[in-house]
Amino acid sequence: MSALLQASGLVLALDGRPVVRHADLALHPGDFVGLLGPNGAGKTTLLRALAGLLPPAAGTVVLDGRPVGDLPEARRARRLAYLPQGAECHWPLAVEALVALGRLPHRAPWASLAPADLATIEAAMRFTEVLDLAGRPVTQLSGGERARVLLARALAVDPAILLADEPVAGLDPGHQLDVMRLLGRRAEAGGAVLVVLHDLTLAARFCRRLVLMQEGRILADGPPAEVLTPDSLRLLYGIDAHIAVEADGLMVVPKGRV
Amino acid sequence: MSPPAPNLTPSLAQRLAAADRRLRRLCLGLGALVALLFCLSLAIGPAPLALFGDLTGTGEQAALARAILLEIRLPRAALGLLIGAALGLSGAALQGLLRNPLAEPGLIGISATAALGAVAVFYFGLAGAFALALPLGGLAGAAAAVTLLYGLAGREASALTLILAGVAVTSLAGALTALALNLAPSDYAALEIVFWLLGALTDRSMTHLWLAGPFILAGCGLLLATARPLEALALGEDTARSLGVSLPRLRALAIGGTALAVGASVSVSGAIGFVGLIVPHLLRPLIGHRPAHLLPASALGGAALVQAADIAVRLIPTAQELKLGVLTALIGAPFFLHLLRQTRRAMR
């Protein structure tokens, strides 16, 4: 199967400082990939480059057979949604108005929302279970509610590829499970999902593929059971971890620093 | 009237359509208010209303009435409308661009720098050389200020950074204007310079309207085109870009539009402050805080406010007619203090 999004030999720099030294990564339809690594490993930078927000210093990111930077902005925006870390809304917009922003790339200039747009907005809100929040100012929501609304905004784009940077950070365990389940369903529906995570058990149980990143390089890329080992975690985070294989997936408990 | 059905949750489509309807209703209401104030502005002045009983006659009185109406009151009313729209609209657009409710052309030094541009043109005698020098001077001043502000406090600026940058820009423009005032060759020249500092629409002619009007309209056009990108920018720069917004284009539209609209306005009326602060702030809750909807509403609201204030200065019985900029500052400054108190929690 051909890749939806393909990064090859990617080198990324911020203000001349190399952040990603070499990365190869492919996202296929149905992929649910977790991107793991310590703080400062270059995960966010890689995600931004995949989203076409950061031009690579070397290498390419190819979307629909063309370098992502060469695609017209509106076309890229329809194919790929990006949910940044700690996403927020600067104005107290109503929930449905915020989710509707996801339809911007699909609308002709000055055109109002078409019935198809409304249907997609409603579907995204039903999917993330925020229909009941309609009419509420987004600034008055709890952290978990806001995270789901922002996810609905990204899903309202109806993208082939969803890149989400720490979408479960700051959520309670219940809401973490909710968001992971939603992302998994999105991948099952044929989308490609790449998500930055710090919770190893959550990553191991939900993602079907994990990418381990350290100091701007990709250490490993494969199924959780193959990639998450005591050795790789020692190398990656400098921790000793207990990894238990349960019937329904791995359980990873960090025990202490090496 | 039937009582509203209890616990009826409107569908999403209804909610989103209701938001559009609210904007339309608000704009219609504000438009009617602007039209009413425009007529009042034509009717109110030192010349008694009785003078205007016969406008079509051939007599001396009819000619005088026509002259007052067409050459004194019409340009004043029309400039009030245009300049008010420019100030309200640029306030709303700048607030959307900087994601900061305190951004306002007067408060952050754009008006002061535009006034400096006009004063410089006047001081060096360029205004006499070619007529367009005056609006172009204001335009250059405003463009320099917005560019400088964006450099100092653009992107993820906090309210505090923006206000401090505005203080710096205002001080610089104020110092240079004071220098021009200090070195003014005559009392007459000094008086002219003071005009730009105080801000007024008195004694503006049709010439002023033709000089500034096209620039203001062009600027408003650019500012209105920022509607959709500003909407996306509510979610931050990265998300806006991921939604297909070109940030360089958005900045060019907002900065260029503000420079054209505010620069040309200030060059003919002087600095009229706080309109771009008060109007968007009052209207924002009425349109659900949506940056795109705020633009047309603020243009109409600004036009209404400046016209109302300009009528008020004619009616307030002071020995000297109160200057328009003085009145808006007297209302606006306490309003700003109130707003600052509200946003203090957000300021670190």
UniProtKB/TrEMBL annotation, chain A:
Show the SUPFAM superfamilies listed in the entry. Answer: P-loop containing nucleoside triphosphate hydrolases
In terms of superkingdom, the source organism counts as Bacteria
InterPro entries reported in the protein's UniProt record: AAA+_ATPase, ABC_transporter-like_ATP-bd, ABC_transporter-like_CS, P-loop_NTPase
Keywords, comma-separated and alphabetical: ATP-binding, Nucleotide-binding, Translocase, Transport
Entry GO MF terms: ATP binding; ATP hydrolysis activity
Q: Which residues form the ABC transporter domain?
A: 5-240
**So what does this one do?**
Part of the ABC transporter complex HmuTUV involved in hemin import. Responsible for energy coupling to the transport system.
Protein family membership: Belongs to the ABC transporter superfamily.
Q: What is this protein called?
A: ABC transporter
Cite the source lineage: Bacteria, Pseudomonadati, Pseudomonadota, Alphaproteobacteria, Rhodospirillales
